[in-house]
Design brief:
Length: 458
């Protein structure tokens, strides 16, 4: 009889993670615009975007160890309290440094997902673990669709006051705290706490050795680079559309829903079928090509605000959420990001970027799971955990570096520069992958003759 996942044990974790993610995804579409409202430049917005992943990189491993020692529940509650404080500060922020403080606190306490994954592992067997962890992936997908919709509704209800979605996010965080306290049952028995072997610290030498691995070194480079490209795209999309299309936070929320739906369709339904049909190696080629095309097209989006756009109204909206004011009438004098002028409105700019986002979102949805899948197939079983750990560390590093790099490019080269750079980077890596990521043992096994011919022709 096939072993089945115990949904009753998993359901509280799933719901808590989903509600927690709703808070995060409510904030994502408007953070760059909120910072712009305080007069932040593109580089400063990049620093703000880097603050959370940089602090998470420090805080998550520490809280992960504490969860092994003291149990999952107390660490989940502590981390969620930090998130609640962070969102509350965002909603009450009176200046830019409060935004930074909020993201730093949230990042340092951001072990929510890692601890939830540990709780899933506690609550499943080896046969049901993949399915259990897959449900967390589903929670991510739902969060990235529902969160921006909630942001849109809260902005519409508040007359585009950017502080309100932050307070809504804080409310979701408070709900997740209460659910954890009153519904979640500790998954790590007291007898097992503190029994895990002390893990060796992550070292630069381990990273270098992994990057030199003959079969997966380039795959790890790809993992880092694709997150620089797609992560930077997500971070600066709102600022780009503000500059090109004059879109406010409500408009950007809808665009994030659009991107989220495409990514969820790809990761939730299509990628499994494509992987079985074409193999992970070809999926990586396709993902790099799609991302290169999508980002390059996005960079060329015509500067055309939508019908009904008014520069004065856009400035007034930003003014109501931040503190930059110039005399009595709103002007662009203190605004670090240039807004499109009035006139020459139309639908071409929006249509263009929505079309560009189809290949960009498909590429972004394909690459991470396909690269990790191929890594697991090209290393020995005893290396799998370590390699995936390094892959995750590179992902975190890219999340911290991407906003800084893209912010600098945006400020120095203009709004198109980050996406043009990212598109070119993906194109160069596609050529490198085509040359050096050749058929491996996972392809030769079923049909050595056919795969061998493909390898020699590559």
């Amino acid at each position: 009889m096939e072993e089945k996942l115990d949904f009753k044990r998993i359901l509280p974790i799933f719901v808590i993670v989903l509600i927690d993610l709703l808070g995060l995804t409510v904030i994502i579409p408007l953070m760059p615009l909120y910072a712009t409202a305080f007069g932040a430049s593109a580089l400063v917005i990049g620093l703000l975007g880097a603050a959370y992943p940089a602090m998470q990189f420090i805080g998550a491993p520490l809280l992960g160890r504490l969860s092994d020692r003291y149990g999952r529940k107390p660490v989940l509650v502590i981390s969620q309290i930090g998130t609640f404080i962070g969102f509350g500060l965002l909603g009450l922020a009176g200046n830019l440094w409060i935004l930074f403080l909020a993201r730093i606190i949230d990042g340092l306490s951001g072990a929510n997902i890692a601890t939830a994954q540990a709780a899933i592992s506690d609550s499943t067997t080896e046969k049901t673990r993949t399915q259990g962890l897959g449900l967390l992936g589903a929670a991510f997908g739902l969060g990235f669709i529902i969160g921006p919709i909630i942001a849109f509704v809260s902005l519409a209800a508040s007359g585009n006051d950017y502080r309100v979605p932050a307070l809504v996010a804080a409310a979701f965080s408070l709900i997740s705290i209460l659910l954890t306290i009153f519904w979640f049952k500790e998954t790590l028995p007291e007898a097992q706490r503190g029994q895990a072997e002390r893990k060796p610290p992550f070292t630069l030498q381990a990273m270098v050795q992994a990057l030199q691995h003959p079969t997966v070194g380039l795959l790890l480079v790809l993992m880092f680079a694709q997150q620089i490209a797609f992560g930077g795209f997500e971070q600066f999309l709102a600022l780009f559309t503000l500059n090109r299309l004059g879109l406010n936070a409500s408009g950007n929320s809808i665009i994030f829903v659009y991107v989220g739906i495409i990514v969820v369709v790809v990761q939730g339904g299509l990628i499994g079928r494509w992987s079985r049909q074409y193999g992970d190696r070809k999926l990586i080629y396709a993902g790099l090509l799609a991302l290169a095309i999508g980002l390059s097209l996005a960079a060329l989006t015509p500067r055309q605000p939508l019908p009904g756009y008014s520069q004065e109204k856009m400035l007034a909206e930003l003014n109501s959420s931040g503190q930059f004011r110039t005399h009595e009438n709103p002007t662009t004098q203190n605004l670090a990001v240039e807004l499109p002028p009035d006139g020459s409105t139309g639908w071409l700019g929006l249509t263009w970027i929505l079309i560009a986002m189809i290949p960009a979102s498909i590429g972004g949805g394909i690459l991470q799971p396909a690269i990790n899948s191929l890594i697991t197939k090209r290393v020995d079983a005893h290396e799998t955990g370590g390699m995936l750990g390094i892959s995750s560390a590179l992902l975190s590093g890219a999340n911290a570096i991407a906003p800084l790099l893209m912010g600098l490019l945006f400020q120095v080269g203009g709004s198109s520069a980050p996406f043009l750079f990212a598109g070119l980077l993906m194109a160069v890596l596609l050529l490198a992958s085509w040359r050096w990521i050749t058929p491996g043992k996972e392809e030769r096994a079923p049909s050595g003759l056919a795969r061998g011919a493909a390898a020699s022709g590559h």
